[in-house]
Known about the structure:
heterodimer; A: mainly alpha; 2 domains; B: mainly alpha; globular; cell membrane (chain B); transport (chain B); transmembrane helix (chain B)
Amino acid sequence: xxxxxxxxxxxxxxxxxxxxxxxxxxxxxxxxLVIGFRTDQNINNELVLAQRWxxxxxxxxxxxxxxxxxxxxITPSREQAKLAKSKVPAAAKIDRRSLKAxxxxxxxxxxxxxxxxxxxxxxxxxxxxxxxxxxxxGVQGSLKYVDNFGIQILIYVMLxxxxxxxxxxxGLLDLGYVAFYAVGAYSYALLSAHFGLSxxxxxxxxxxxxxxxxxxxxxxxxxxxxxxxAIVTLAFGEIIRLVLINWTxxxxxxxxxxxxxxxxLFGIPFTPGPTGFAAMFGLPNSxxxxxxxxxxLILFLALLTAWVTIRLRRMPIGRAWxxxxxxxxxxxxxxxxxxxxxxxxxxxxxxxxxxxxxxxxARQGFVSPESFVFLESAIILAIVVLGGMGSLIxxxxxxxxxxxxxxxxxxxxxxxxxxxxxxxxxxxxxxLFGLAMIVVMVWKPxxxxxxxxxxxxxxxxxxxxxxxxxxxxx
Amino acid sequence: MEYFIQQSINGxxxxxxxxxxxxxxxxxxxxxxxxxxxxxDVFMLGAFMAMIVFLxxxxxxxxxxxxxxxxxxxLVAMLLTGLWSWTIxxxxxxxxRGSFRLAPLITAIGMSIALSNFVQVTxxxxxxxxxPLVNGGVTIYGTGITIAxxxxxxxxxxxxxxxxxxxxxxxxxxxxxxxxxxxxxxMAALLGIDVDKTISMTFVMGAMLAAxxxxxxxxxxxxxxxxxxxxxxxxxxxxxxxxxxxxxxxAVVGGLLIGLIEALWSAYFSIDYKDVAAFSILAIVxxxxxxxxxxxxxxxxx
Lengths: 474, 302
């Protein structure tokens, strides 16, 4: 018995070693040209080759060793775990509903207090280091965290929640969502520049414009299904971006529109003057108030999106969306008007994209077509799918992980100590983002929160496991 | 008229390149019903491979005859890009087979982002210009129409490849396996066809054609950059949809049409809006002819 086991052990390692060698050879083939050689321009702008065999060797070795570890240790232990799991009956299940409620309550509390928590922590750190209690330095230092992390993540949370109405609820695959974001941003930028209208007036207008575009673009694609719909929405997104680039009389082309008016707190501007926010409340002058104001503004907009989504799911229109996602033919047989159902989904999703766009323009003070490339649509869609389509909490987690994670890479200055001064972590941001998308998807194909709660039920609400949820194909 | 013919020739050369890329999209879609978003970046990678092979040839060997250089560039790019595509399929798409339909689409988008940024990180963000490989052209007697030699190379290479490809799909065991997997994967597996291997080979074949397209693109424009995968990729996909996705002749016809539309629109209307024209025509065709020009109409089974 012991003999058999040991020989079994041996064969695992032999097999792993064989696989490692094969992986090494494949990795050599993959990286031989792209890593082994580097092309640089010389003074005459001609390309010259530089050779990097050391780096190539490292890549090949990492691939081979990684494969060996995976085949020799991780796969067998995983199989054992699976075996052990199948023997134990599924008894102790966590009460997911109460867990979910706790998570969302805690998350909301954190969201509402986030800027002040950051200020407090920074002030405490300052106090611990220098021994001086200075609230002001905490306020100044918090700028970066509120702006780069808080606002940035919440914008994507809002966009993803908006797209979730189209993709997650109605099951319509939209690859051009960024177009509505662009419509919102440009309508705020242009109308405030030409007519001097205020942010609070233009915010709903931007939403209405974007919703109108949602209907205009949605109408011709009503008959299309699945991938055809995806490619046509992608094409529409690109068309809008190309028009923004080329219609220079209105949009100033690739130069973009700068000097966009800031948002005001019901008429109180965030300027240093005597009528400004700081002077009125007797606070010292600082740019932080505007950032904190923007943070609460986008938090409010995002929560509005979530609230509307939750309410709509319980209304006939929301149920019609979900019915459309599950089965279009059955939906039509039951007398649901698929045309209006699809159009309202497009319009509602687009409206929230428009809100987010006008917020984006007010925050940046600058819009250009560069901000509305296909990559943005892809990132938003990725967040929706990675979060588990239809789950608001899952989407928020996915946005925090993906956007926060890549933003965090900007902060990794200490890596320069390891890799030398030429090392710039920002360069690897999108590379790691792409790889993370693949890894998360392979690891959890249903997204972070894959199971769904039914909106309509008999007697008691039962969770639908992710295995039973169908995807949209309309 | 001369101007029209000249522009049509330019359009057809461009269209050949789109057609070659479009075949990769349409084959993968036909067999596993997935939009391989990374295909445009595979094309870009192929062009980079060809560029590095060209530089290696000139640096280490010196003057190599142009025909030999082009052949070597294509062959090495085909082999290595095929290997890349095989690896991508193995790592990012195969684990998700049988999962829900959006999952491989997301990994494909992730792979597209990762690939273009990988090339940016390893090869630098600047444009990579190479000296012109094929110069000159012929003027058709009695008219002002000129055909550049490099345009001829593109059309001839495309024609040869399409012939070889047609033979591969219609006359070999692998092609038969592919067609059977396209019709019914489960039945094909029951009849003893290695479905996984067939799908892998489909990806490799698509990538090889994309690598040739990349080499031809590099030869035609003389410059490549890491962002160059996106626009040709989207246009080739447009071509595949236009021709009827899943249909191989449709991909070629769609590619040629997109090339023609683009060239003629730039010639007669506005060069800035040529991409808008291509995409608008895609939308219009799909609305009135939802299964493309040569595609089979989708039958809904209840």
